[in-house]
Amino acid sequence: MGKIKLLSAQIVNQIAAGEIIERPYAALKEVLENSIDANARNVNIFLKHSGKAKIVVEDDGDGLLYDDLSMCIQRHATSKLNGTNLFEIRSYGFRGEALPSIAAVSDLSIESNGFGISVNFSEISDIFPSKIARGTLVTIKNLFNRLPARLKFLKSDTAELSACISIIENFAIINDNINFTLRSEDRNVLSFQSESIENRLASIFGSEILERSVYCEESDDTVLVKGYLFHPIDSKYSQDFQRIFVNGRLVKDKIISMAIRDAYRDLIPSGRFAAAVLFIKIDPFYIDVNVSPTKSEVRFRDPKYVQKMVTNAIKRNLKKFDRIVLSDGGIFVSNDLNERNTEDSDTCLEPTVIDYLVDQDTLKTQFHNSSNSILSGISFEENIKTIPINSEFQSKTFENLDEVNFFGTPVCQIFNSYIITEMDDSIIIIDQHAVHEKITQMRIIKDLEIGRKQYLITPGKIKISEEQSRNFEEYEADLQNCGFDIILASNRKVLIITAIPSVLDERTATEFVKEVIETGEKLKLPDAVRRKIADIACHNSIRFGRKMSMIEMEVLLRQMAETDSIHQCNHHRPSFVKITKAQMETMFHRR
Ligand code: ADP
Ligand code: MG
Question: In this structure, which residues have their CB less than 5 angstroms from ion ligand 2?
Fold first, then answer.
């Protein structure tokens, strides 16, 4: 007799589970996909121990027929590929392996239409009566309990919960017609009720971030790209805020990520990732979704084409950012041209009194320092006309500001707050505080990126619990990249900090480490550092109202030229305004 035997169904399912059900969030994802495929309108999720102890999903979808209860837990059994070509899949599921895989590594029960079935680590029960009359109730208990090797790879409760939360958020983004709620340990954690996609995005990413974003929608014969491009200032040290959906499926896709990176290339510092929510629609014929068991990757028939199309679509829409920042600017011109024309029509068509009035308040408004409307509180003489910076000025004046790397020669400082410089064909008005703040911020970010550190004369110590020690191990590399040197004592009860990033003081640095190991949330790491950087930059910058010497102004201009994204200050206001000679000629009706 030969030595080769077929594997038992249980082993086969456990192997499949190894690929599909890596952690609780993956089991949750599969079950949610089933609810959505079953046309549910309300999906309620309950978790215990972040899904490690229990995941319950209740939906009001089509439900399962009595005969299908015993079928759904069979491997490769699906209701979704009924004669459909594998290359034209329109449902989330199609492989028919999620439920048997989950059943192989947990205690699973499925109840629908008054009946239920359960599988305890592959042991199938008889069909039993159930109170669930409408929709479906799926309960997954004791995930990996009998597989200690898999249990070891589970992360802290906080990390597992945040993975579950982001899976639900992603389904809520792409299915804004479905209500989702999440309760964890009897706490209401999420509630996406009938609301617009914008409201859902605002509650996930923050309303400020969404307000700063631009909407993009472009298509050609094959591909539709739409979504929200977040402001460069909202870029992240991780790809967590980059959500890419291809035909309604959240995917991790290198081609699209590269397209995003290329489009934002000149707008964000290296090492950071642009944040964006992109919905890409493509004829299913042109993609293969059957690439990985978790269905989280896709393969495009013509990846280069898709990449180029997405990059160009994003690039074109990123240009809107300048307009947003500058949309409420205005220029005031003293001009009683009409009257003058009638009086002196034979001599001069141009204004003879050249008083181009720009007072301090106007300048403030120009730099968005004042929340006043451009027209409120104007105390100019009656004959003053307002020429808003309309489309004509916006495209001419502020085009390609990011490419500007020469800011002219300083002419003077006005109101001890703005520097005026002159170039061949234009003048620039610079907000001295805003640019210096930006220069300081970018310098600190650079220091942080290269992990510039300071060594402590007396190492700091933090007492920690076992869970905190695991969190530390998870984020050790990130902390090190920022400039921390931290040793975990051999008893795993103390952290010894020997070096901290050069931008932080010792107390903040220690608090910071505590926060990371306490919450186990990686996301907070870059955000907290950013907040700190913004504070430091603001306090160390040349203030408004401070007289500057010519030499200081020249140094500032040189630093400006070397700083990326200098056209925008840390508070998203423009940091300088350029007026070309041609525009001045238009103002004075010389052309
Ligand atoms: P797939 O989703 O790839 O078909 P699954 O193992 O996830 O495979 O599910 C098997 C089958 O069980 C599905 O095809 C579907 O018919 C049925 N099913 C699972 N969950 C639900 C649900 N919540 N509502 C209705 N039917 C479901
Ligand atoms: Mg499925």
Answer: 33-34, 93, 98
How long a stretch of residues is the chain? 591
**Full-model pTM:** 0.59
**pLDDT(474) > 50:** yes
Q: Is 322 in the pocket of ligand 1 (CB under 6 A)?
A: no
Rg value, the chain, Cα: 30
- Using CA atoms, how far apart are residues 407 and 574, in angstroms rounded to an integer? 14
Atom 25 (ligand 1) nearest CA: 63
Cα 278 from Cα 214, distance rounded (Å): 12
**273-295 exposure pattern, b = at least 16 Cβ within 10 A, e = fewer:** bbbbbbbbebeeebbebeeebbb
CA distances from 447 to 441, 522, 527, 541 (A): 10, 20, 16, 17
Q: pLDDT of 349-359, one tens digit each?
A: 222 222 233 44
Mean pLDDT calculated for residue range 3-22 = 81
Rounded CA-CA distance 169/160 in Å is 14
Q: What is the mean pLDDT of residues 439-448?
A: 78
pLDDT digits (tens, 9 = 90+) for 19-67: 789 899 999 999 999 999 999 999 999 999 999 999 999 999 999 999 9
Question: What residues have CB less than 8 Å from 34, skipping those under 6 apart?
Answer: 92, 93, 98, 99, 136, 138
DSSP state of 195: -
Look at domain 9-194 and name its CATH class.
alpha beta
- Helices H / strands E in the chain, number of each: 20, 25
Cα distances (angstroms) measured from residue 402 to each of 232, 361, 392: 12, 26, 19
Residue nearest (by alpha carbon) to ligand 1 atom 10: 72
CATH number of 453-539: 3.30.1370.100
For residues 106 and 71, is the Cβ–Cβ distance under 8 A?
no
**What are the distances in angstroms from CA 499 to CA 462, 483, 496, 507?**
14, 7, 9, 12
Nearest CA to ligand 1 atom 13: 78
- Fold assignment, 198-318: Ribosomal Protein S5; domain 2 (3.30.230)
In the chain, where are the structural domains located? 9-194, 198-318, 337-443+544-587, 453-539
| CATH superfamily of the 337-443+544-587 domain | MutL, C-terminal domain, dimerisation subdomain (3.30.1540.20)
CATH topology agreement for domains 9-194 and 337-443+544-587: no
* Any atom of ligand 1 within 6 Å of the Cβ of 79: yes
User: Are the C-beta atoms of 113 and 107 separated by less than 8 Å?
Assistant: no
- Contact of 471 with 524, CB cutoff 8 Å: no
First to last CA, the chain: 98
Burial 468-490, CB ≥16 within 10 A → b, else e = bbbbbebbbeebebbbbbbeeee
| In contact, 47 and 183? CB cutoff 8 Å | yes
Which of 37, 67, 84, 138 maximizes ligand 1 atoms within 8 Å of its Cβ, making it the mutation to test the pocket? 37
Q: Please give the distance, rounded to the nearest whole angstrom, from the Cα atom of residue 61 to the centre of ligand 1.
A: 11
Place of tokens 């840390």: 570
Does the pLDDT at position 515 exceed 50? yes
